[in-house]
Amino acid sequence: MLSEFEIIDAIVAGLGDRAAGEWITLGPGDDAAVIAASPGLSQVASIDTLLPDVHFPIAAPAQLIGYRSLMVSFSDLAAMGAIPRYCLVSLSMDKSQAARDSVWVETLAQGMAAAAKELGVYVCGGNLSRGPLNIVVSVHGEIEPGRPLLRSTGRPGQSIYVTGPLGAAAACVRTGQMMPVEPEALTPLQSAYYRPQARFDLSSLLTSAVGGLDISDGLAQDLGHLCRASGCGAALDSAALPVASEAQLHDALFGGDDYELLLVSSTPLEGAYRIGILTSETGLRLDGEPLIEQGFDHFCDGTRTA
Amino acid sequence: MLSEFEIIDAIVAGLGDRAAGEWITLGPGDDAAVIAASPGLSQVASIDTLLPDVHFPIAAPAQLIGYRSLMVSFSDLAAMGAIPRYCLVSLSMDKSQAARDSVWVETLAQGMAAAAKELGVYVCGGNLSRGPLNIVVSVHGEIEPGRPLLRSTGRPGQSIYVTGPLGAAAACVRTGQMMPVEPEALTPLQSAYYRPQARFDLSSLLTSAVGGLDISDGLAQDLGHLCRASGCGAALDSAALPVASEAQLHDALFGGDDYELLLVSSTPLEGAYRIGILTSETGLRLDGEPLIEQGFDHFCDGTRTA
């Protein structure tokens, strides 16, 4: 049986050079991490929980679980227009996982390190406790004060954009491709699910947008969030929706796990897909018909109408 | 059955004026929170998980669970000498808790708000998912660069101090006083367990100390952490140990959950208890005899020798 401290050592080994560097003044090992702040910038912070068989298949390779956990958590910072800097990870594992060996947890950390490297961030602190498997990632970045991309700044007449094709991750789930999976030989749909890309590569687009969020719960539900926060409705054009290859319109509307950004703007956003317009009439419409705001609800498993 | 969004509304209602204010530019409701940073200061960050029947009795009043969760998490920032600013909370709950009503979760949030008010901090973001009960708190503060109180800066010859009597929370557990409990009529031992105080009131002491950490796993184990990080040992004097009223020496040495600070210093620390000295010989000694570094290990439940 590995001790708590041996497991922590395996995690830090898996993180490698992603545990500290650059703006991380003090990494793992003390009561808290210390991070240098950039003069004149504000801090941006969010937290996410990832649960087995809700947010990833329990039997998936640990490397993919680690990669996906970090990337989807950081997506919330991309959706604010922030610069990502660091994260903390709190991991609960039960004895059976811990007793097996340290390979699982070290591989999980290697997957997190791979995502951290791509994002240019560090995993500078964490916590380990024994309990049902549960991965919590708090993500932190910086932004110019007054520049965050909000959900509440949409207004009727603004155009609605998405930053890429939707539905591939949902199609992966629907077609039963989540398992088995080989990290080195992912199909395109598996890649969409296990290797989502937080969109930190869109800074010029974000400068022109007036509001937005990331599409994690499905386009219809996330657009509903924006509309409620902005006090308006939306009219979508199905022909304009970029549906991912091998996905269906239903996947793109309701699937979730896309992590593309949903943006609203009064001026054209070059390189993004214009899919509709915000309306003064509340509620969502698709091709003129009411659109049921179906999406993932952790407690209802159900369907909501906006 | 409450929806995810109704539960979130109940949490935000329970937080009241602790969800945003002062340096919180943007509180709950968007993809991430935005926090103004103080010019010239570094960020300090830590994360903790609290699990039912490990870190609190599942049947305890939600108000006390919320209070304790926040206070013990912020203790890590006190141990760095930081100024506490804000936290994020990720809550997993199962359907049975969610289905009951929103009272439990709103009361939990009220308990968190009470601790946040005492600390002068905000709970400006969070996450809710369905799973085994699990409370994760990431805590954030600020500090002058170069001023954190580390575990690795102890040197032989420095005196060892603790900032208050130890063992009361452990005595609460040992004597079976954790339940039943009435939030408005806590016994002294219950108060130690359910209403620990993160020691942010010691800034003058901390200026003189050269290293330290908070005592969460028990004095012996936490002193062991400091000694290993500093490459030295320690000799303790049992007669000098401040044992809390109704507690025993064993509670004070091995009990944990004290959240007093353990400090080392070359100059006297007025108002703290001097309990021993760091030694060049590694390992811990009590009154000249080897001290087994027994304490809480999430995976072994066992005893370790330093």
| Overall number of structural domains of chain A | 2
Shape of chain A: globular
DSSP helix count of chain A?
9
Regarding quaternary structure, how should these chains be classified?
homodimer
Radius of gyration of chain A: 20 Å
Write down the CATH topology of the largest domain in chain A: Phosphoribosyl-aminoimidazole Synthetase, Chain A, domain 2
Instruction: Describe the strand arrangement of the main beta sheet of chain A, using strand numbers.
Output: 8-10-7-11-9-12-13
CATH architecture of the largest domain in chain A, please? Alpha-Beta Complex
Number of strands of chain A: 15
Topology:
2 copies of one chain form a homodimer.
Chain A lengths: L3 H12 L8 E3 L6 E3 L6 E9 L11 H17 L4 E11 L1 H6 L2 H17 L2 E9 L3 E10 L15 E4 L5 H7 L13 H7 L8 H6 L2 E4 L4 H12 L2 E4 L12 H6 L6 E5 L7 E7 L3 E4 L2 E2 L2 E2 L8 E2 L2
Parallel strand pairs in A: 4-5, 9-12
Antiparallel strand pairs in A: 1-2, 3-6, 4-6, 7-10, 7-11, 8-10, 9-11, 12-13, 14-15
Helix pairs in contact in A: 1-4, 2-4, 5-6
